[in-house]
Each structure stands twice: as structure tokens, then as C-alpha cells.
Amino acid sequence: MTALGKLLRTTAFRLTLVYLLVVALFAAFLLGYFALNTRRLITEQITSTVEAEMTVLTQQYNQGGIRRLVVIIENRSRRPGSSLYLVTTPTGEGLAGNVGSIEPGVLDKPGWFETAYRRLEEQQEGPEHHALVNVFQLPSGFRLLIGRDLDERERMYRIIATAGRWSVAIVMVLGIAGGIFVSRRVLNRVDAMTDTARTIMAGNLSGRLQETGTGDEFDRLALNLNGMLERIELLMRGLKEVSDNVAHDLKTPLTRLRNRCEEALRVAKSEADYRAALETTIEESDGLIRTFDALLMIARAESGEARQGMVEFDAGEIARDIGDLYEPLADEKGLSLRVEAAAPARVKANRELVSQALANLVDNAIKYAADAAPLLNGAAAEVVISAGADGNRILLTVGDRGPGIPTPDRPRAIERFVRLEQSRSKPGSGLGLSLAAAVARLHGGELRLEDNDPGLKAVIALPRAN
Amino acid sequence: MRLLIIEDDRDAADYLLKAFREVGHVADLAFDGEEGLALALDGHYDALVIDRMLPKMDGLSVIGALRAKDIETPVLILSALGQVDDRVKGLRAGGDDYLPKPYSFSELLARVEVLGRRHGGRSEETVYRVGDLALDRLSHRVVRGEDEIPLQPREFRLLEYLMKHAGQVVTRTMLLENVWDYHFDPQTNVIDVHISRLRSKIDKGFSQPLLHTVRGAGYMIRDGAR
């Protein structure tokens, strides 16, 4: 496609053409209407003054006869201006007036006529003029013609018509030039976007559309598309990391599983040996299934699919319910578990997912705090679950007195499958915090890991329900 | 119990058939939705085990067709789709229980037995009795022998569920679903701790334990004397 062809096909240019056409038609209509009305107005004016003059002259005739009329007409004919006068005998011979020649037949019957004429003093070969005349038959058969030259009217009409044509032409030229200018600007922006999109499609996911900062519609589009690209890039990176991690964390236990079966086949002597090998196999497969479920769950939460099941409820209920579920376990581990959820903290969320996220945090807190410091200053170390509001956020917090996580390690702790070194020996898929983070993100919130001084404070921050 | 298994994976279906026979149940097999529906409309089964994705007619449609004909045989849905909203869809379609794949046979068995016996269930009784243990559902009182046992509300609900299904195996997931209404798997086995607390309240100091652990499956409350 040629550059011009491309330009002419742009929406901006086509819209410009349509607007131009509309504006031109409107201007033409307006000027035409104006011209016609002006013309009519002038005609009306002529008619009414001629009629008034006719009345006056007829009266003069009635009072003073033809002689008086002739005198008056001669008088008036000498005045400069566009007025025309002619008095003739019943046979058509001119008695007085300033009309030299007139179209034949005009004088034969009374009434209004538009006619070509020449003035008395003009050459016969000169150009003819046009006039609007009124012919009146006087009682004695004399004829009286009064009229006005129409040149002025026609000149005015022509001026307006010319102005109209010119303005339409100028509108068209300026409009097309403007259209081309606007289209080129638009086209340049779109071309730039298309080029960026091509490089992104070619695999460079870090490419971004240019934002000019003018805040126009292209900027808004670019801003949103960039947001989308950001998200896609993040998801892609996440996907890659997950597949790497899945490969690692599922392959390791699968290999172990396989080796154990092989070993059993090789060395097992008794039925009891086989039974034991099978039991561990089942246990390990269950662990694999759990890991797999957790991964699916995270994937679902991150895809936003679970957004359907959102209901409004008090986050305090969830804190109390989970506290109730975990209290015996904490107690068994020598920890005391306390729930602080006095004020209502309403959220709109997927109840099951938020419960599970909170359960994961409590599970972690108990797991790590139990070994570290069951006793704090002689009293049982506490795990505190709290629900409360902070500005427009609802915070579900789990604080423990365990070893905590050093600040630099915290972002990594939320990543999938990451178990910080000292905790490798603990049971668990390493997905608990990732799931909690995914759930928080699904609801437009976030998971924060903070210092509990001592210990770890994990916070699920969710938007407050309005 | 007489069961109908509608499952298109023949290996899985055969495995279930054998496993159910081993524990003394009779089971018929159907490999697609239409065949399964015909059998279910025909025979008198105590419970149906229906895979969600079936050839010819999917599992939920089979259930819908049965319910439309006023056949109220309890149905357990097996599905590879294990999320909460899938479960809700399954139950809304007329299923009575929902078990995501992969499942363990002991879990399936426990659930099917609870479903199959629900007909003659004791849900209408106001007082559940097992041995000398009595639970009054209206006054929320629990008495063993002569002694009243004070229970926390959650402990009461746990015991109520166990006693409602007295003599039947109740798995940890069933407890989590029915007593706590959670459909996820807590990383640590929190249910065991709740059970041991409950056990210390109702069994401690009595010669005859009522709350039993069924290895590899779950728990059961029964009168040991029988």
C-alpha cells in the first residue's frame, strides 16, 4: 500500500471527508437560502415602492389630467437613479419618461413584468438592462409604466453566490489539508504502536508502547496496553518459573517414588517388606497429589477464575473459624493461640479461598514457632490471629514468635516452592505462602511479611467492602 | 449394599467393582451415560457412583434425568474437576456428595456407605445413642452413663456428626467438610488433634472406648460391646 493510499484509508481521514461534506452542504444551503431571500426581499421592496408611486401618480392624473402627469413624469425622469417611467398614448407613442425601448407587448396589458429595456439616452446597440415594471392603464386609455432597474438586485445575488462558492471551496481545501494532517498524526502513532506490537509478537515481551504524556486517547490506550503487557510478561515469567519449579519439585519425589519401588523389587524378602514399600509409595503419591492440587489452586486464583464466588462477610468470622480449627493443634505444640477480631471488618471475597490462605499462614506459624520458642519469658509463646481495618484495607494478620524471616529473604519466601534453607526439613509443599499471596492478589490485595519483633507477622491485606 | 458405578475408564471401574466386592457390596457397572441412566432407572440401587465426564451423556445430565423422574437414589459424583465451584455445580445438579479424583478407595467407601445408609438414617432422631453415650440434639447435652460431659460448640458438632453415622467410617475430609464446611486440605492434620481432644472428653475414665481410629481411613464411633 502506498503511503498516500494508507493515509486515505485511515478512519480519521474518512471522518474528515464526511464532516467536510456535511459542512459544505450546510454552507451551500445556508448561503443559497440567504441569497434567495435577499433577492425576494429586494423584489418585494421594489414592488411596494412602485405600487405607492403608482397610486400617487394616478391621483395626480385624476386631478390634473394627462398634462400634469406628463410634467411630473418628465420631472422625475430627469432625476438620477434606477427608477423608470413611461407614459404612452393609447396607441403606444411615448409622451414622457426615460425608457428608450422595451420588449414588445409589455405595454399591451396591465400588470407586473420583468423585461429587458434600454434607457432613452442609451445607444441602440448597447447592452440591455433588466427591470421590474408595473403597467397601468389610465381611464382614458393612456398607459403609465413605472419600474425599477434590477441590476442592483442581480449584482447582490451574484456577490453572495460567488462568496458562497468560494467559502465552500476554501472549506474543502482547508478541511482536506486538516484531515491529511490529523490522519498523518494518527497514522504515525498507530504505526509506532503497530511496530512495537510486532516486536512484542516476535518474542520481545519487554517492549512497551510509547506514551507521549499528552493524556489523549492514544496515551490512554498505550497506558492500558502497557499495563496488560506488564501483566502478560509477569505471567509468562511466572509460568516459566513454575514449569521449572514443577519440573524440579515434582520430579524429585517422582524419582524417589520410582527408586523406592525398584529397590523394593530388588531387596524385599517378605510380604511385610512389600507392604511397607507400598505404604510409603501411597504416602508419597498423596504428597504429590497435594502439591499438584495446591499448584492448580494457585493457577486458578491467579487466572482470576475464582472471582465468581465472591460474597460479603466479616473477616473476623474467618479469623475465629480458623482459630477454632487450629487451636487444639497449637495447644498440642505448647503454643497458645489467640484471636483478636472485635470490630467488624467486612470484605467481599471468596470465603473458601481466604480461609485457606489464612489456614496456610496459621499452619506455618505453628510449624515454625513450635520448635523455635515454645516459651517466651516463661509463658507459652503466642500465635495471634487478628482481623481488623486499616484505612480502606482489611487486614488478616498472623503473628508468631518463631525465628521469623530475615528482611532480604522475605520477597523470595512468597515465591512458589521456595522453602528457605533452614526449613527444608519441615513437611509441606512450599506452596502455602504462594497460595496466600495469589489469593490476596486475586482480591486486589497483597500478602506482606513483616517483623513481629521477634517472629514473623504475615498480613493478608484485602480491599474493604463498601 | 447394591451399587451402580457409571465410569467410562474401564480399569478404574473394574478396580472399584473388585474393591467394593471385597468389602461385601454388590456393584453393577456401566461405561457410558445412557447405559448408566437405563440401569439406574431400572434397578433398585442403594447408591450411585457417577463419573462427571462420560461418553454419550455426561454425569450431571444423568443425575438431572434421574431427579426429573423422581428417583432419589443418593449419588456420589467423581470428578477430575476438584474446585469449590465445580463441587457446587455438581451438588446443585442433584448430586449428594462430590469426590475429586484422584481419591483413595477408603474415602470413597466411607462416603458411599454414609450415602447408602442415609435412607434409614437417624437424622430425624432428637437423641443419638451409642452404648451409654447419649447426645441430645435439641438441648445440646451430652451424657455418658450418669455424667454430663461439657463440650465446646464445635466439639458438639463433631460428636453429633460421628454419632449420626455411628458404626460407619468417617474420614478426615468428611469431617472437615461437614463439621467445618471447609473443602481444602489443611497442610497439617488438624482433625486428628480435635478428635483426640474429643476422645479425652468422652472416653477418658471409661473402660469401654467408643471413638475408634480406623487405620488408613478415618474414625468411627461404635459400641465396642456389640
Fold and architecture overview:
The complex is a heterodimer of chains A (about 475) and B (about 230). Chain A is α+β, with helices and mostly antiparallel strands. Chain A folds into four domains: about 10-155, Beta-Lactamase (2-Layer Sandwich), CATH 3.30.450; about 200-245, no CATH class; about 245-305; about 310-465, 2-Layer Sandwich (Heat Shock Protein 90). Chain A contains nine helices and 15 strands. Mean pLDDT of chain A is about 80; it is low at about 420-425. With about 230 residues, chain B is an alpha/beta fold. Chain B folds into two domains: about 1-115, Response regulator (Rossmann fold, 3-Layer(aba) Sandwich); about 125-220, Winged helix-like DNA-binding domain superfamily/Winged helix DNA-binding domain (Arc Repressor Mutant, subunit A), CATH 1.10.10.10. In chain B, helix 3 links the parallel strand 3 and strand 4 (about 75-80). Chains A and B meet through helix 5, helix 6 and helix 7 of A and helix 8 of B.
List the helices and strands and how they pair.
The complex is a heterodimer of chains A (about 475) and B (about 230).
Chain A: H1 3-8, H2 11-78, E1 83-88, E2 94-97, E3 99-102, E4 111-119, E5 129-137, E6 143-149, H3 151-201, H4 217-267, H5 271-303, E7 310-314, H6 315-332, E8 336-340, E9 346-350, H7 351-372, E10 375-376, E11 379-380, E12 382-390, E13 393-399, H8 410-414, H9 432-442, E14 446-451, E15 456-463
Parallel strand pairs in A: 8-12
Antiparallel strand pairs in A: 1-2, 1-6, 3-4, 4-5, 5-6, 7-9, 10-11, 12-13, 13-15, 14-15
Chain B: E1 2-6, H1 10-22, E2 26-30, H2 33-42, E3 47-51, H3 59-68, E4 75-79, H4 84-92, E5 97-100, H5 105-116, E6 127-130, E7 133-136, E8 141-144, E9 147-148, H6 153-164, E10 170-171, H7 172-179, H8 190-202, E11 211-214, E12 218-221
Parallel strand pairs in B: 1-2, 1-3, 3-4, 4-5
Antiparallel strand pairs in B: 6-7, 7-8, 8-9, 10-12, 11-12
Helix pairs in contact in B: 2-3
